[in-house]
Structures are given as C-alpha cells and as structure tokens.
Amino acid sequence: MPDGTLIERDKGTPQGGVVSPVLSNLFLHYVFDVWMGKYNKSMPWCRYADDGLVHCKTEQEAQQLLLELKQRFAECGLEIHPEKTKIVYCKDENRRKGYQNTKFTFLGYDFCQRESRNLKTNGVFMSFSPAMSKVAGKSMRARIRKSGVRNRSDLSLEDIAKWYNPILIGWINYYGRYHRTGMESVMRHFNKTLVSWAMQKYGKLTGHRTRASQFMENIKNETPWLFAHWKLGLVGAFA
User: How many angstroms from the chain centroid is the CA of residue 133?
Assistant: First the structure.
C-alpha cells in the first residue's frame, strides 16, 4: 500500500504480471471466441487480447449482436466497456450514408475513409482502410525525443544509424504495412532530429538550421542506404 503496509492478495492477478494476459486470453477464448464460432458463424471477427472487431452487414444486425454480447459478458462476470464499444459505419466509395461513428482505432491503426489509388487504372477512389494511428505517431515521436539522440554529439551518424535502424525497421514493418505514406510525419520528425544533432555536433552549423538541413540532405543523397527509411524511400523533409 502507499503507506508501506502489506495486504495479502487472495484474488486477481498483479497488474503487469506475466500471467495476466495468458489468463485473460484463456478466459476470453471461451467467453468470446468459442461463443462467436458457435452462435455467429457467418460474421467475420477478430480479437487481440481484450480488443475485438466484428463485421456485420446491417446496423440492425450490429445492434442485436451488441445486445447479445453484453448479456454474454455479464453471464461470465465481465462488462463491455461502455465508451470504447461502439457501432461504426464503414463509409467508403459505395457506402455513402451518414452515421454518428465512421472511424475506429485498432492495434495502432486508424480505420476510416481515405483516398486510395487503384493500381490497375491508376484512378483515385474513397476506401475504408487502415493507416498508422495519430496516437501511435505521437508515441513514436515522443520516443525519439525521450531518447535524447539530438544531444548525442559524442556519436557519429553511423553510430546513430546502428542504434536507430532496428527501431525504424520495426516501426516500418508494422505501421507501414498499409498506407506507408502515413508514416511520413514520424520520419520527418526523425530527420529534423538528425538536423538538431548536426547543429550540436558541428560548430559551423550551430544556430544555422537551414544550413544544417541542407547538410543532412546532402548526406542522404550521398548515402541513401544509411537509414532504414531513406533506403525504403520514406525520406521525408529535413526542414
């Protein structure tokens, strides 16, 4: 407890304990997965930990399923989150009706109406598709700031590449699977961090952001393979 006293735990699992997600998945497998497979075989669905999606054909079908899920969870001693659980209309080129909710976030992706390109005709159309979420982008930029790489003038650019390339590759492999261009804000932030590093590293660039930006731009042109996002074409701006 906050005052230092100890209280014996006789139920539940410690927050952050390694066994918690295992037990949660085991329990939800029977509460949700098996139940969906038995009573709603025609509905595509997925679940990751305590986040799940079910695709319904009509709003009426969705409303009925939501009611049944609330009852099912209550029977098992659980409660569906009243704010996070909602019915979403997947608005796109063909579904043009108005609805209160037309987007949602799942596993770090924002699903919403956005422009897409038909690879066969090269035409642009409106799809309902995923891209890196705003929250995920904010988290990645915060991690870059927290790492303090801009102040590591003791490191060479090659040292920074060895340090950050595994991180950048991980982000690109996950968040760049759909609408990779949505990651440009994060890559631009990283580039601007490199510009700040150059201003710390080299006295002739101190206080000269434009000159430092051009300096990093030249390095990118000379060694496009140095950083993972440069190599994959997710260069982004330096200024």
Answer: 5
